[in-house]
Amino acid sequence: MILDFGGGFFLRRATTADHPALAMICLKTGDAGKDASSREDDPELLGLLYTIPYQVLEPELAFIIDSPAGAAGYLLGAADTAAFNASLASDWYPDLQRRVADPGPDSSRWRGSDRARHRVHHPDFAVPTALAAYPSHGHIDLLPQARGKGIGRRAMAFLEQRLAASGSTGVHLEVMPENNDALKFYKAIGFEVVQDPEPAKQSVYVGKRLANTAEAAS
Ligand SMILES: CC(C)(COP(=O)(O)OP(=O)(O)OC[C@H]1O[C@@H](n2cnc3c(N)ncnc32)[C@H](O)[C@@H]1OP(=O)(O)O)[C@@H](O)C(=O)NCCC(=O)NCCS
After folding, report:
1. Which pTM value belongs to this model?
2. Is the dihedral of CA 183, 184, 187, 189 positive or negative?
3. Domain map (residue ranges) of the chain
4. What CATH number belongs to 3-217?
């Protein structure tokens, strides 16, 4: 156990045995924070795109929020987003692309998990220039039973500490614009919306500067 949140909820390092939980929680929060189960016909694919690679490629920053009833959330990070995306491109996507069929370019014909399948074959690894001050990024998703207890705030503070200790000067998160609850949460914990002068994606980015505690410690 790394952090005890009380009430049987705690944070621990994620392992390969947690891949099904990482996929399940990603699915249950995959529709802008809400359950995407009824939309997706492949229940694993969102996890294979958005959560499991963190445990594989950056295991020091991959954590599960556990509970008496089992995994109830995850906290994931990448210290250097550009380097992480390069690893995704070279070490993760090629295998996924062999296993998943491309649904083609016509989005009007997409069904079920086809948007995710399209993403597998047309990934966007570019990091917007507006995020230069926030080189790290993170993801946090909690199942309903873990929400509203201060776990998100404490978990994010922990991730920020870990990133700052590794020398990071800033962290960002990508939020679906319709996820107002998450935007309010990030604002409450000190993140600001990062204005992108050339918005290439339909996401909102929130960012926070970090005091580089690695320098202070050396
Ligand atoms: C968003 C999420 C991570 C927040 O975690 P949480 O543990 O529920 O939040 P906390 O209890 O730690 O709340 C921290 C602060 O954020 C505020 N906050 C959290 N959710 C909020 C909401 N829906 N509306 C307004 N404020 C909110 C709290 O009021 C609290 O502020 P305070 O400490 O000043 O009182 C969690 O609710 C979640 O996983 N939601 C579903 C998935 C999701 O949307 N993830 C983010 C994807 S980008």
Report:
1. 0.95
2. negative
3. 3-217
4. 3.40.630.30
pLDDT digits (tens, 9 = 90+) for 124-172: 999 999 999 999 999 999 999 999 999 999 999 999 999 999 999 999 9
Output the CA 140–ligand 1 centroid distance in Å. Answer: 10
Ligand 1, pocket-test mutation among 171, 184, 185, most atoms within 8 A of CB: 185
